[in-house]
Design goal:
Elements (H helix, E strand, L loop, with lengths): L4 H17 L5 H12 L3 E6 L8 E7 L9 E7 L12 H4 L1 H5 L9 E2 L8 E2 L2 H19 E4 L5 E11 L6 H14 L1 E5 L5
Parallel strand pairs: 7-8
Antiparallel strand pairs: 1-2, 2-3, 4-5, 6-7
The protein binds iron/sulfur cluster.
């Protein structure tokens, strides 16, 4: 027999109440189950990457840090000591573990060549080389020294830069310095961490 979502919650609530009526309280067991899940883990404080609220999270990893061991993220929860969220997380932040441990997560740079209908994996060295060459080529081709009225403007309108939501203020400082030195004026980032 299928259960609707509403029936599922009703059964769950009644089940919990039955446990109370029968003389036992399931909450210590549930609390202990959570403790067992994060027993022996390493706690790392971080910031949820999704939106500009920037809630604090604690990432629990298993692994003894030996060279031949890959640590595994087993649980992510809100940081109760963080001044922004005090341990709470919205549904997106609560699902962070599935974002980290996910076989569809991209771990290498990819490129889609002009005219191609698919993305291909490339190495980090190739990606950095290609980006460097294209930035130089685009800047050389689109740099504007003077506007039509003869004012010196020294700007590059062929490149735009947008930062990610987990970039630190220090990273954004370096981005602004390097992009401005190229003359880039279409520049946006999310300074928050
Ligand atoms: S937990 Fe939710 S509100 Fe907090 S930073 Fe992440 S996405 Fe934003």
């Amino acid at each position: 027999m299928g259960l609707t979502r509403r029936e599922f919650f009703r059964v769950g609530t009644v089940g919990g109440a039955s446990a109370m009526l029968l003389g036992f309280d399931a909450s210590p067991v549930l609390a202990q189950a959570k403790e067992l899940k994060i027993a022996r883990t390493t706690e790392t404080r971080s910031t949820c990457p999704y939106c500009s609220v920037s809630c604090g999270v604690i990432i629990h990893t298993l692994g003894d840090k030996a060279k031949n061991v890959t640590t595994q993220v087993v649980h992510v929860e809100g940081d109760p000591d963080h001044p922004i969220n005090r341990g709470t997380l919205c549904p997106k932040g609560s699902s962070l573990q599935q974002d980290i441990v996910n076989d569809r997560r991209l771990l290498k740079p990819q490129v889609r060549r002009p005219g191609s209908d698919h993305w291909e994996d490339i190495s980090w060295d190739t990606a950095i080389d290609e980006i460097g060459h294209l930035v130089k080529k685009t800047r050389d081709e689109t740099f504007i020294e003077k506007d039509p009225q003869g004012h010196t403007v020294n700007r590059c309108e062929g490149i735009a830069f947008t930062g990610g939501c987990t970039d630190t203020n220090e990273f954004n400082y370096l981005v602004v310095k390097s992009m401005r030195s190229l003359g880039v004026c279409y520049l946006e980032n999310q300074a928050r961490v």
